[in-house]
Amino acid sequence: MKTPECDLETGVCAPAPVPQEPGASAPTEAAEEIVYVGDPMCSWCWGIAPNLQQLHEFGHKNAIPFRLVVGGLRPGGGDAWNRQFKQFLEHHWREIATMTGQEFRYQLLERESFDYDTEPACRAVVAARPLAPENEMDFFYAVQRRFYVDNEDPKTVEFYRPICAELDIDYSVFAERFDSDDVRAETLEEFRLNRSWGVTGYPTVFVRVGARHHPLARGYATFDQMRDDLIRAVPRLS
């Protein structure tokens, strides 16, 4: 797999392709919903996280549901863990930290080996979703922090034990779901779904009003930018 593409000017990380099958599920039929497509191991998704927290809260106050769809930035990983790849990661992490103020640490880059496979982190979000639906975004943010700040490995189920404890999720039930074929299939379906929508980079945020999609962010955006676009797209907020 080639080195991922992350653009510092647009704040977009481009995903790897996944096998497509017909029949991907459509968005829910709520009159309005904010949809966030992101990956816990996408550096720009970590950069935009505080702004999305504000958008999530703004949507909640205005009775607009917030839907998270896991992106699948690098499902399967497979990149050589060599000097070039580590330099690529460090360069982008430092640039994003400077631009956004988000904390990154770099001990991960000292490991002798690491597979940058983002599927397990996405699968963990899907596994946890029905166990604590009201805390879905908190779980997502906790996975991001444990990876980018604590530099732990999201591919191991033990990575999620402290997150489950923090959010009062039954770890044994989570661990069983994390390793289940059904959750693996559901995760892949979300990868296919967002690609079927034409999503070509993360983070992507849009608001659906009826059958129409109004973009709020393709790449990094401030809360003010997303809020203002949301207000323009949803007439009752004006």
Automatic annotation (TrEMBL):
InterPro entries named among the record's database cross-references: DSBA-like_thioredoxin_dom, Thioredoxin-like_sf
Any Pfam family hit: DSBA
Ranges for domain DSBA-like thioredoxin: 37-226
Origin: domain of life: Bacteria
Region (Disordered): 1-26
SUPFAM superfamilies: Thioredoxin-like (SSF52833)
Protein name: DsbA family protein
